[in-house]
Every structure is written in C-alpha cells, then in structure tokens.
C-alpha cells in the first residue's frame, strides 16, 4: 500500500518509517494476543476462542483507525477492562460469560450514540492544557513502569512496596543490556532503532535457561526464556455470535454496562490526549487530530468485541512506541493491524519474543513522553497541583483512569476555591460527574 493512499494531514513522513513504526507498535502490543485469553478463560470462555476474537478485533479495528481515523493508534481488547469482565462481572457478580459479553455490546452501543453526537469529542476539547500535558507524561511513566515490571527490574517488596531486584540475575542483566543498547541506537538516530533493539535483546535472551540462569519465574514454568512452541494453530470461531443480547439488558446489569462505559471513556480520552501530545498529532483547531473519527472507531471496537467474544476494545497507549519510531499517519495502524492477522494460525510463534525484549522500548517511550511537563507552569500552583496529581497517580495507582479522575476533580475544586470558576469549562463539569460516577461504580 502506498503511503499516498493514507492522508498524512501535512505531517512529513515516508512509507519505510510508517512500516517500521507499525511493526514496532505491534511488537509492543502483541502480548495481548495471549494475555487477554489467559484472563478471560478464567471467566469460563475457551482460551482458543478468545484468542481468535482478540486477533480479529485488533485487526479490524486497527485497520479502521488507520483508514478512517487516519491515526497511528492500535486498537485491541483493553487491559483492566478484561480484568473487570472476568473478576467483577463474572466471578463476583455471577454473570454468565454470554451475558457479560452482552453488557460489553450494549456499552459499545452507548459509546456509539455518544460518539455520533460528538459528546465524547466535546468532552476531550474541554480538558485544560496543563492536564493534557500531565496525562501524557503520566502515561509515559506508566508505560515505563510496565517496562521495568516486565523485565523484573522492579519487583514487589513487602517493606517498601516496590524495590529493585538482584542485579546479578541473567534476566535483569539482559534487560539492562537491551536498554542501554536501544538507548544508544535511539540517540544515534539509527533507523528502526526500536525494532533493532527488540531483535538484539531477544537474541541476547536466547541463552537464558539453556546456558545460564533459570527463566521459570517469569515464563510460566519454562526454563528457557526464548522458547519455540510450534508454528501452527487452528482458529476457533466458536465465540462469534454467542453474546446474550436480551438478558444483558436487565435493569440490574446497567451498573456493569456503565462501568464498562466509564472505564473505556477515560482510557480512550487519556490515550488520545497522550499520544497526540507525544507525536504532536494535533489538528488545525489545536485538539487531537481526527478526534471524532478516532472516538467513533473506539466505540465500534467495544460493540464489536461483544459480538466476537472478548472484552471491550480500546485504543492502546503502547501506540506511543510506534510514534516514537516516527509513525505519524494511519499507515502505522494499518501495518500493526495486519501484523495481528497471521497469528490466527501462527500464535505459537509469539513465544519467541520474551517480555524483556520489548521492555527497553517501553521504558524509552516513557522518556519520550515526559517532554510536555516542561509546558506546565509550575509556579502557577492552581494549575500545577492538579496536573501533578494526574501525573503521579497514573503510575502510583497503576491506573490511567484514577490519575485522570483525580486530576480533573482536583482542578475543579481548586479553581472554584480560589475564585477562578471561570477556568472550569462547562464540559469539564460534565466530565467531573462521570468521574464521580466512575469512583462509586468502582466500589
């Protein structure tokens, strides 16, 4: 596909850069192909069926994001949303998985109504700029934390909550090697630096479990960190259309539907704001580029997820990896989406690239996303304090949603308390209402 077939919105780029960016984004998000089925299978859904649904959703909706919304953002089943589906909707509330899938579908329908009416895009446009900068940087710290955690560089500690691990561990040493190597490649502006770093880190991890160290602690029982578990697997389409659309509309299930709506709302809002800031993906009006189309794509992903047999789809913050690689147009999302499709049949090959191979890329993306904090006026405390809360609570609570909720609420309270209520847009009051509902729905 020629780059000219995907409008660039005047952002300079080229086909090679976009393809490399798409591959980078896929490598950073491909974990969802196996992680999502691992979580939803605990809700009683077949692993192979969820795997097929995950790939189909990621392929179709990433293509829609690229072709329709023309943004370099991957769409896939959301982490956190899949946990809510399994552990709250099914295990705690006792819903049948088919009914929970129905709740996902109706949440998507509600999203579509909000998106078609431009309500969601209007809410994004009301977010004050200091909060936008803070959310972007907070997501960067969150991505960095995920990278360090995937590499087991940062581990849980009962005394201090978290701490650094033993530096003589072969897995950690390999991660450090990959991080420093990828950093040097990035600083030297080597084309495809992130992909090269992932490949070389994978090669460096190959001896672990074979010639030194033991990878069993982080590789689900396999002693070898880089393992070959076959090539071919047969797609399982058994979950397509298994959704229960009637029983999921019971009045008692509307809190579940609203919980899906609010969680996905804040995830998508923060993702679009964060990646727009990271890649300067703004339209002439100063707001995230093609926002209406992007939000509509996100809504379709949620509704389609219920029909295919998985938890809600959402835009992925790991798309920042491809943006850091230079992705600026929809071709990045198209390439990433197409990378998902072969794994309908080749999912065992995913075992070749371990988590520590993509961890350096995630850490570096966090560094790239910190730049917006310099645009916050830290001397203007009524701006700085809400921005700071959003910035730190995203990684500290391990939740983008919580960071954005407390950033928004504190902005409103502080501005009103110091006599600057005129700096709280009408739309932000509506967002604050959603924030309060989301807080109560989460408890």
Automatic annotation (TrEMBL):
GO cellular component terms given for this protein: plasma membrane
How this chain sits in the membrane, per its record, is: Multi-pass membrane protein
- Give the molecular function GO annotations: purine nucleobase transmembrane transporter activity
Q: Where in the cell is it found?
A: Cell membrane
Q: Where are the transmembrane segments?
A: 19-40, 47-67, 73-90, 99-119, 131-155, 167-187, 193-213, 352-373, 385-414, 426-442
- Primary residence: membrane
Q: Which UniProt keywords apply?
A: Cell membrane, Membrane, Transmembrane, Transmembrane helix, Transport
PANTHER family from the xrefs? XANTHINE/URACIL PERMEASE C887.17-RELATED (PTHR43337), XANTHINE_URACIL PERMEASE C887.17-RELATED (PTHR43337:SF1)
The Swiss-Prot or TrEMBL record describes its family as follows: Belongs to the nucleobase:cation symporter-2 (NCS2) (TC 2.A.40) family. Azg-like subfamily.
This chain's protein is named Xanthine/uracil/vitamin C permease
């Amino acid at each position: 596909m020629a780059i000219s077939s995907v409008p660039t919105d005047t952002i300079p780029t080229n086909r090679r850069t976009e393809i490399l960016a798409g591959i980078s984004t896929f490598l950073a998000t491909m974990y969802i192909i196996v992680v999502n089925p691992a979580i939803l299978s605990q809700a009683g859904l077949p692993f192979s069926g969820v795997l097929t649904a995950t790939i189909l959703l990621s392929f179709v909706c990433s293509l829609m994001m690229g072709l329709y919304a023309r943004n370099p953002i991957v769409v896939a089943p959301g982490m956190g949303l899949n946990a809510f589906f399994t552990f709250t909707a099914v295990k705690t509330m006792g819903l049948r998985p088919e009914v929970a899938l129905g709740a996902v579908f109706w949440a998507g329908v509600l999203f579509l109504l909000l998106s078609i009416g431009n309500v969601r895009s209007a809410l994004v446009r009301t977010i004050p700029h200091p909060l936008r900068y803070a959310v972007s940087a907070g997501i960067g710290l969150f991505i960095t934390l995920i990278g360090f955690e995937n590499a087991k560089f940062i581990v849980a500690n009962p005394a201090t909550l978290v701490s650094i691990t033993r530096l003589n561990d072969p897995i950690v040493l390999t991660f450090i090697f990959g991080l420093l190597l990828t950093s040097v490649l990035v600083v030297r502006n080597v084309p495809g630096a992130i992909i090269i770093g992932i490949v070389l880190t994978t090669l460096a991890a190959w001896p672990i479990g074979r010639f030194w160290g033991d990878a069993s602690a982080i590789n689900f029982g396999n002693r070898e960190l880089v393992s070959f578990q076959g090539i071919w697997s047969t797609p399982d389409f058994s979950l397509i259309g298994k959704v229960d659309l009637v029983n999921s509309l019971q009045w008692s299930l509307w809190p579940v539907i609203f919980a899906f709506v609010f969680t996905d709302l804040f995830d998508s809002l923060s993702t679009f704001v964060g990646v727009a800031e990271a890649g300067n993906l703004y339209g002439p009006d100063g707001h995230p580029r093609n926002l209406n189309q992007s939000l509509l794509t996100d809504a379709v992903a949620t509704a389609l997820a219920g029909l295919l047999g998985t938890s809600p789809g959402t835009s992925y913050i790991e798309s920042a990896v491809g943006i850091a690689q230079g992705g600026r147009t929809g071709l990045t999302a198209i390439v990433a989406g197409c990378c998902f499709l072969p794994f309908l049949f080749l999912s065992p090959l995913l075992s070749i690239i371990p988590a520590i191979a993509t961890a350096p890329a995630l850490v570096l993306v966090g560094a790239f996303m910190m730049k917006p904090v310099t645009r916050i006026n830290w001397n203007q405390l009524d701006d700085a304090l809400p921005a700071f809360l959003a910035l730190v609570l995203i990684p500290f609570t391990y939740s983008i949603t919580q960071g954005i909720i407390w950033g928004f609420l504190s902005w409103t309270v502080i501005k009103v308390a110091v006599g600057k209520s005129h700096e709280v847009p009408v739309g932000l009051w509506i967002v604050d209402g959603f924030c309060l509902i989301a807080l109560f729905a989460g408890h």
